[in-house]
Amino acid sequence: MTTTPRTAAVIVASTRAAAGIYEDRSGPIAVDFLRRMGFDTPDATVVADAEIGAAVRAALARRPAVLLTSGGTGISPDDATVEAVTPFIDRELPGVVHAFYAHGAQHVPTAVLSRAVAGMAGSTFVMTLPGSTGGVRDGCTVLEPILEHIVELAHGTAAHPKPDPDYVAAQTGQVVGGVVTDAPLDPEALAADAVTQAMGALVRFDGIVRNHDHGDPVAALTYEAHPSAEVELTRVLTEVAAVHPVRIGAAHRVGPVPIGELAFVVVAAAAHRGDAFTACQAAADRVKAEVPIWKEQTMADGTTEWVGLNG
């Protein structure tokens, strides 16, 4: 019996989430990723750690093309996902795991403590991801440019396309703008600078000021930036462009930004959609983590709080 090439499944191993103590947030990230990649993917199945083995067996019996798990990859006695998945894998893909570790360690040194495993269970690609939302996002970022090819290889449908013309490479790997400004942002102008006739995809992230934070209503918001913020923004974009074949730009607003208005934008243009998606997300995540821009929130009750300040 063969797999169904365009189906996928996600299993979350979390005893507390399965008991309803808290709402799982990692599974939906993996599900959304697989759906965006074109796989027919039901909502994540959430099980207690002790039930992960049975859940994996049941999922593989349905022969999905892809099975991703979240949770149970740590070193505590209850973490049993790797032990449950490994017996089903008959061809390991250690390079995928190494890429996952390398990507995660750029931002979180403890990412290497995840006991990830990836490989083929028959014709099903399986990978175990951490239970954190960041760990799942890292895994999806690594899989984005290769997952389609893995599935094609597993089903004997992989094509060997001709490489892009040389002029595509000459136009990519470039930063088209990086600015920190107190003026309203103009994402259309940034996108226009990113797109050329050689680009086949444009991905844009819009960061919009919302009227709540961690369940509390927000009345107003003001951004402040360190004098080095624009330099750091450009550095991040340059480093992303150095490893992804894209034309990329970003802008961040400072000062008072009304609720509902654009505070942060990233655009990434590439010849192929996978590169644009991956670079745009990588840049957005890194700007948030590395560029010294903070926000002061005025809550509905009149109190204020700073977000993003590190001691």
- Listing every helix as H and every strand as E from the N terminus to the C terminus, the arrangement reads EHHEHEHEHEEHHHEHEEEHEEEHEE
Largest sheet: 6 strands, mixed
Instruction: Give the class from helix and strand content and strand pairing.
Output: alpha/beta
Number of strands: 15
| Average pLDDT taken over every residue | 92
Oligomer: single chain
Strand content: 25-35%
Distance between the termini: 57 Å
Low-confidence segments: none
Please state the CA-atom Rg, rounded to the nearest Å. 21 Å
Total count of helical runs of at least 4 residues: 11
How much helical structure, as a percent, in the residues? 25-40%
- Based on CA inertia axes, which overall geometry fits? globular
Spatial strand arrangement across the major sheet: 2-1-3-6-5-4
